Amino acid sequence: MQIIHWPGLTPYAQGLQRMESHLTQALQTGQESAIFCEHAPILTIGSSGSVSDLGTSPLPHMHTGRGGKVTYHGPGQRVVYLVVNLKRFNSDIRAYIQWLQSWLIATLQETNLTATAGSRDTIGVWVPSPTGSQKIAAIGVRVRKGFAYHGIALNLNPDLSVYTTFTPCGLTTHGVTSLHAQGHPLTMEHLDHLLQTTLQNLLPPLPASP
Description:
Layout: E1 2-10, H1 12-29, E2 33-39, E3 42-45, E4 61-63, E5 70-73, E6 77-85, H2 93-109, E7 116-117, E8 125-127, E9 134-144, E10 147-155, E11 175-176, H3 188-202
Parallel strand pairs: 1-2, 3-4, 9-11
Antiparallel strand pairs: 2-6, 3-5, 6-10, 7-8, 8-9, 9-10
Helix pairs in contact: 2-3
């Protein structure tokens, strides 16, 4: 799997086009990718989202083909787009989503932060708080011809006040948090190292060709 870093803040629409080009490459050659980036501030609406969840946010918004509802992308949040052959997961999208949650949980554990996976209705990764669980990472995926794409968004140190202006991921009774808010002031470079290491250690092998 090739590891790719896009420097700076990538406009979301441009990022989608570039991710799609890596998907096209994967469909032609089998080359998988993990693309690390940060986006300029935007709200994105997934396939089960609604414009009514945009609330009072002044941010631009855009519909996207990933699963999920409305989420925020912006500085201080690590987005990783994964273009992955689902044969690694017996062509089971639910198994892949569970693995994404496990990958994030293992990464956070390396920072001594305990996290748990969401349920089928609350997909993502959560950390405990005195007022109830708070979401620290969102997951949204789509599948085309046996390859999963889109990926994860992990909050390192975004502006959390943004989440009070819209309904994030359909959540009305849970908050959103970040590594820095939880007392873990990592740099983005350190977080990337942990994400890449756990990715390489945990990604199941492709089955042998018949």
